[in-house]
Every structure is written in C-alpha cells, then in structure tokens.
Amino acid sequence: MLVAALSKSAFGSAQVPTLDIGLLAYLNSLTIDITDSELCHILDAGETTLLLDGIDEGLRSAPWLLDEIRCFAARHRTLHMVVSARTSGVLDKPMPFMSVTLMPFTVAQRDQFLDGWFGAGGKKYRRVIANNLSRNQILGEIVRNPLLATVLCVLAEHGIPLPDTEVRLYDERMRLFTGQYDVHKRVPRRLEYRSEDLIAAARRIAFAMHEGRTRELSASDMYRIVGDVRVSKRTGAAGAKKLVDELVDPCSVLVTMSGDGRLGFGHLRFQEHLAATEMALNRSIDVIPLLADPGWRDAFVRLARMTDSLDWLIDEAVRRMAVRPSMETFRAMLDARTPLERDTYTMALRHATERIRLADDDDDGGEAPQDWGAD
C-alpha cells in the first residue's frame, strides 16, 4: 500500500517520488490527519522506528525503491529502520543496509508468531493450528519458519482444511508461492505464468538436480532443463528463462545458494519433495535404477507417502529383478505406509526375493534368503 501511495503521488510527474511524500499520502489515506512538518518532526525525533515490510513485493512496480530507502535514511539519520523481504532475486543486489537471515523458530517463537499474526480476535484460528500441530507432531517439527507458519495461518483464516502431512504442507507451500500469496496479500499479480506451469518447471528442475547429486545449479543450466516444459504463453528458450526467473522472483521457490549466484531450493527436504512429485506424476521416468541409490532413499519415502499404491513400482522392480539391490529403500518406503499395506507389500516382496533366490540356486548353488521380517 505504501508503494501504491508513492506511485499515486508521482502521477503526472517525471520525478521519482520520495518516501516522505509516500508516507504522508499513506497516512492520509488511513484518515490520519498529519502535516508534512509534523511527519518530519516524528521521523527526526530520535525515538521512531519505521518498519517497511515486503520490499520484494514493491520493487516490481517501484524499481527505484532501494535507492530511495538509502536516500531516505541519509535525510533522517536518527531514524531507526527495519526492512523485510522474502529470500528472492532482490537480495542478489547490493543492499544499502545490514542484512540478517532468520534462524528457525523455536516452538515458543512459533507460538508467538501465531499469536501476533491473529491478534486477540483470532483465538479460534490459533486453536485450530495448535490442535493440528498437536495431532501431527512430525508436521510440528517442520513448521519452524515464518513462511511455513504463514501457510498455516492463511489456510486457517480462509477456512481451508489444514494439511495433516508434510506432503500436503509442501503442496500448499508451492501453491501459495506461485500465485496464491499475491491473492491473499492483495497485491497486483506479478506472474506471467500459471501456477501449474511454474510448479511443473520446479519439479523438473528438482528431479534433475537430485539426479545430478547437487543442491545448486546455475540459472543457465536450469533454463536448459525446463526448455521442453510445455507452457501456456511461450515455449522454447525464452519461455524457459521466464519460468525460471519467475521461480526466483517473485515466487522465492528458487533461492541463491552460493556466492557465484547458483540457485537451489533452499532446503534438501523441499528438493526431495519436488523430485518425488515428479516421479509420481511423470511415469516416463525410469525410476528403477534409482531405487538402489541411497541418495534417493528419502525421495522414495516421500513418494511412498504421496502415491495411492506402490503396486506399479514393486511389480516393475520384480519384473526387472531389481528387488534385492533395493531392499533398504523398499523397507524405508514400507515404513511410510499403513500397517495393512506394509504387511501386504512385505509378503509380495518376500515371495519375489524367494523366487529369485530359487532361480539363482539353479545357477550358482544357492544364496541365503533375504529377511523381510515376520508375517
């Protein structure tokens, strides 16, 4: 809203507006009757702190904003300023102030965040979230930063059922970051591509990165990876570049991971989630060779949590005699299923390994049977 007030104050003028003018216009729009001299006195009194939230949102319509913040601070040297931004492409630029990154919340800090978000009138939403996190303790261990806590707050406020699993939390996170965030924040749409296109590109990138055993890639490598993603507005190199750039800014799905500007998903857990989703949705991928790779084990566990059935995977592994090299991964996947499914799949895998063992016995004289646990 402050940026909108700044833009309105500069309407019909070739000059870049100042924060002083924008603040005055913004306060007046809130029916706060204050003159420019009174505002200047408040700013220079030495006891004032100005909070500017969401600078990454404002830079799209006001690219001069960072320079104006620097000039504003020089004009009001006794003023304390705190500026916030999501981890985004904006942070690749030189910042005119000291930068800090938030550490994960403690439980007490997360509770304080939720209380502050809803205020005194939001106790019912606060209880909904508290009950959800209490019922789903693993989810409670994950929701330890403002963005994931924001996902829960926005869902609760709009009466949307809260996610009860990590898979659903990350799915909601992707939807929020690829368009719904702007809707809920009531800021003008900043994305050219649909949420579906952006999520498809993110999945493709995450899978390629995991396959390459890396947490970070250059932007140019990512352009190449998503070059064949079918999108609604534009295809080819230009479309791939735009998709990746929007995943960086304003979506903040991809973030800077290194000093040379290489990009990644921030947390390995998020990369694994997207890679697993790509495996679940894109059956053209040959996942069988990946089963025996310990580096893919956690991604397969996530796949086990998001797919309705593992029959297709087990049947293919049995057909290609890839069960025994992949037993540790299968065991981990079965631990993520219901007890009934676990027993059913364990029996199927035991029978498969026994058939393979008997076949091997005919060839090389035998091998000890594999232990799949009790029936």
Q: What can you see in these coordinates?
A:
The structure is a single chain. The chain has 375 residues and is mainly alpha-helical. The chain has four domains: 91 residues, no CATH class; 58 residues; 78 residues, Orthogonal Bundle (Arc Repressor Mutant, subunit A), CATH 1.10.10; 78 residues, no CATH class. It contains 18 helices and four strands. The chain has a two-stranded parallel ribbon. A two-stranded antiparallel sheet has the order 3-4. The chain is elongated and about 95 Å long. The N terminus is likely disordered.
Quick synopsis:
The chain has helices at 2-9, 19-29, 36-43, 55-59, 65-75, 107-118, 123-135, 137-142, 146-157, 166-185, 195-211, 219-225, 236-248, 268-281, 297-306, 311-319, 327-334, 339-364; strands at residues 49-52, 80-83, 255-256, 263-264. It is mainly α. The radius of gyration is 26 Å and the shape is elongated.
Strand content: under 5%
Shape: elongated
Count of DSSP E strands?
4
Low-confidence parts lasting 5 or more residues at pLDDT below 50? 3-14, 365-369
Q: What is the number of domains?
A: 4
Strand order of the largest sheet: 1-2
Radius of gyration: 26 Å
Sheet/helix structural class: mainly alpha
Characterize the largest beta sheet: strand count, sense, and whether it forms a barrel: 2 strands, parallel
Order of helices and strands: HHHEHHEHHHHHHHHEEHHHHH
Mean pLDDT over the residues: 82
Number of helices: 18
Helix content: 55-70%
Distance between the termini: 63 Å
